[in-house]
Amino acid sequence: MRKTIQYLASSLVLAASVVACTNLDETLYDQVASQNYYNTKEDVIRSVLRPFEHGYWSIQSRQVLNEETADQLITPTREDWWDDGGRWARLHRHKWLNTNGEAQSEYNGCYQGIMQANLVIEDLDKLSASQFGFSDSEFNNLKAQNRVLRAWLYLRLLDAFRNVPLAVSFYDTAKNSEGQVSPKTLFAFIENELKTALPMLTKKTSMGGNQNIQGQWTQAGAAALLVRLYLNAKVYIGEERFTDCANYAQKIIDGEYGSYKVAPRWDAAFDWNNETCDEVIFAFPGSAGYSHWHYKGDLYWWSVPSKASDWLKDSKNKEGSHNIKYSLRLAIIPKEKNTPLNWVCLLHVLRIILRT
Predict the structure, then answer these.
(1) pLDDT digits over 83-125, tens only?
(2) What is the mean pLDDT of residues 209-237?
(3) What does the alpha-carbon distance between residue 146 and residue 148 come to, in Å, rounded to a whole number?
(4) pLDDT on residue 12
(5) Does domain 40-280+292-331 have CATH number 1.25.40.390?
(6) CA separation for the pair 181, 49 (Å, rounded)
(7) pTM value surpassing 0.85
(8) Backbone torsions φ then ψ of 189, nearest 5 degrees
(9) Bridge partners of 181?
(10) Could you write out the DSSP letters of every residue in 287-323?
(11) CA distance 151 to 328
(12) Helices of type H across 203-258
């Protein structure tokens, strides 16, 4: 009888243990789960701005594709420096390989940012302004930010690849295309997103630069993307949209979308304190002590002569000696023209400035 009681007691303990092991729910104290992230106004703002950091980082791959494949800059081999298996020469000659990685970096970087933006867009659609003490206009501006950022990323993909997938949802992937969409479909999506978001965005109403809205999309920023889209429509979709391009550009010039003016110095728009420059419509905020991807690698740092801080008294240098990668390409001097070399150099510099 005693053994029977012992076996019965052991069975009950074992059964209780089995039941207990099926309940694996736990209370998290060291993490913030997605379902309870949005508790304060600051949480909403942080969420909205997170994809912008990724967008800022991603501009480096864009520089490589735009410059190495064009005709104004080149990465020449300097003895055994900057040969790198011929990768830069292949880009320059338009004979790149799928193992090069430059195109993949742009493609993957854009889609990572797009999915981050999709997450925030869908999250904010579930929230309301009153929950967090926002006015309707403030909340609409925040909701529009990632729609414009996503449109900017898709515009880069349209420019570089034309036929790409269209992903509009983070949570419901059935809403995303199963394969590539046509350039016309992507063009129409970008156009609609920008036109829808534009009136929801804030407007720069005074001179003195973007100040504390630096790095946020404004009405002029969305309009500028429409200008870029329409300017290249003939190339993208085979349709001329120059009238629309001129219309939005003129509205920016006339101040309909905010107060802007050309800076007195050509480099003011690119300076460390360009949040005070009225020529800047949109720029990611950067500082020497924090993120400054515009200064890193393939942008400013590899475009300036080595030791420029010493030889050229580059007082804006914040990261020591440069490692020059790019040089002006002078091989396109017209043979039929008796053009002095220094004028050709000047023309190339002007082209780079205007392109930027």
Answers:
(1) 888 888 898 899 888 877 888 889 999 999 999 999 999 999 9
(2) 95
(3) 5
(4) 47
(5) yes
(6) 28
(7) no
(8) -65, -50
(9) 164
(10) -TTS--TTTSTTTTTTTS-TTHHHHS--TT--SSS--
(11) 32
(12) 219-231, 233-237, 242-253
